[in-house]
């Protein structure tokens, strides 16, 4: 009898370990779903309504996978402590089977609603596009490009963007430039990209102005011309476009196309950083860290690096880890240092990987 009891206890322990593993995976899926925020429907379609469509599907998928794992605990490991709690509806400390099931059902209903709305928009845009409406042609191209309500079709995206662009639609001209710039369904063609960027830029479209500035800076599709790059970056910057402010700040910091001016670089990077641009936040942090154009202030450097790091900027993650390791601008904390170095290392930062090894060897 004692042998049977021992075997039974061993099976329960195995079931409990397996159930715990599944439960942890389910909790992670639920947390992932909670982080997926659905943007409201608004323009530009390609970056927001398409994003909402994809996000609602991803949220429903994550919650349904979590339900499947919880059902697996109940079905395959019924003797485990977690299974008993899930079946009886007791509090597990974070999630319940019924709660996740209900959330998954709501998410799937919302995803289906978004799908229906997307299909309705597609039909509406297709009809108007066929009749020559430039805005509808642009929107239809965007749906084919992003795969919203239809399969991704680069040729159809190109076709409808081209029709809208030829009617002077600035956003379509910009996106057509991007397609040629990136070689999406067509051979890369820098000269063609510049052509369409220029058309949209001349109409004041800030993203096209910034892209055109970058083409002049790199000498891609046009002869390298730093002064012309500054011109276009400035036009977009004056309209408040954060990426253009960042690039114009870079030009002033390096003295490229304009006289070197750290104060102007600081001003532009601060504006872009306050708009939430991670690259600018990193650069602003570096200026405070080095006392570059501003009095040295390690705490201010850590503040801006944290903002950029929380957005996933690997350089900022590494630098914030350094601050915690050295106790500069923040209290010394090896755990926090390791946390930020690990995030940077996961993005391929080799220096962060080395710092982690050194910390582990202590």
Helix/strand layout:
Blueprint (H helix, E strand, L loop, with lengths): L1 H34 L13 H28 L4 H8 L8 H34 L3 H13 L7 H13 L3 H13 L7 H13 L3 H13 L7 H13 L3 H13 L7 H13 L3 H13 L7 H13 L3 H13 L7 H12 L4 H11 L2
Helix pairs in contact: 1-2, 2-3, 2-4, 4-5, 5-6, 6-7, 7-8, 8-9, 9-10, 10-11, 11-12, 12-13, 13-14, 14-15, 15-16, 16-17
Keywords:
362 residues, mainly alpha, Serine Threonine Protein Phosphatase 5, Tetratricopeptide repeat, disordered N terminus
Summarize the structure.
This protein is mainly alpha-helical and 362 residues long. It has helices at residues 2-35, 49-76, 81-88, 97-130, 134-146, 154-166, 170-182, 190-202, 206-218, 226-238, 242-254, 262-274, 278-290, 298-310, 314-326, 334-345, 350-360.
What do you see in this structure?
The chain has 362 residues and is an all-alpha fold. Among the domains are: 1-126; 286-362, Alpha Horseshoe (Serine Threonine Protein Phosphatase 5, Tetratricopeptide repeat). The chain is built from 17 helices and no strands. The protein has helices at 2-35, 49-76, 81-88, 97-130, 134-146, 154-166, 170-182, 190-202, 206-218, 226-238, 242-254, 262-274, 278-290, 298-310, 314-326, 334-345, 350-360. α15 runs antiparallel to α16 (334-345) and α16 packs antiparallel against α17 (350-360). Mean pLDDT is 89; it is low at 1-9 and 40-47.
């Amino acid at each position: 009898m004692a042998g049977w009891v021992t075997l039974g206890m061993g099976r329960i322990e195995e079931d409990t370990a397996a159930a715990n593993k599944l439960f942890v995976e389910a909790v992670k899926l639920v947390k992932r779903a909670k982080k997926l925020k659905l943007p409201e429907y608004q323009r530009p379609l390609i970056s927001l309504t398409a994003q909402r469509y994809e996000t609602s599907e991803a949220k429903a998928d994550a919650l349904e996978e979590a339900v499947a794992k919880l059902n697996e605990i109940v079905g395959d490991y019924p003797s485990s402590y977690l299974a008993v709690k899930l079946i009886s509806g007791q509090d597990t400390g974070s999630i319940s089977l019924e709660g996740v099931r209900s959330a998954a059902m709501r998410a799937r209903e919302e995803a289906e609603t978004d799908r229906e709305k997307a299909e309705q928009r597609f039909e509406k845009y297709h009809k108007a596009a066929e009749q020559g409406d430039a805005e509808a042609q642009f929107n239809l191209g965007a749906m084919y490009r992003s795969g919203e309500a239809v399969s991704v079709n680069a040729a159809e995206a190109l076709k409808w963007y081209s029709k809208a662009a030829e009617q002077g639609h600035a956003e379509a001209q910009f996106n057509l430039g991007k397609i040629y710039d990136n070689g999406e369904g067509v051979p890369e063609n820098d000269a063609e990209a510049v052509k369409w960027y220029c058309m949209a830029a001349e109409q004041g479209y800030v993203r096209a102005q910034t892209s055109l500035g970058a083409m002049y800076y790199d000498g891609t599709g046009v002869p390298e011309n730093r002064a012309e790059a500054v011109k276009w970056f400035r036009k977009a910057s004056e309209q408040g476009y954060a990426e253009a402010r960042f690039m114009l700040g870079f030009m002033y910091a390096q003295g490229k196309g304009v006289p070197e001016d750290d104060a102007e670089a600081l001003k532009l990077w601060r504006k872009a950083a306050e708009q939430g641009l991670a690259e600018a936040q990193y650069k602003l942090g570096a200026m405070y860290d080095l006392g570059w154009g501003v009095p040295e202030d390690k705490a201010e450097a850590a503040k801006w690096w944290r903002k950029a790091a929380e957005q996933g900027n690997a350089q900022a993650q590494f630098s914030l880890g350094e601050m915690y390791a050295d106790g500069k601008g923040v209290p010394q904390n090896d755990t926090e240092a390791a946390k930020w170095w690990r995030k940077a290392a996961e993005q391929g930062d080799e220096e962060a990987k080395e710092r982690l090894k050194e910390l582990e060897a202590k």
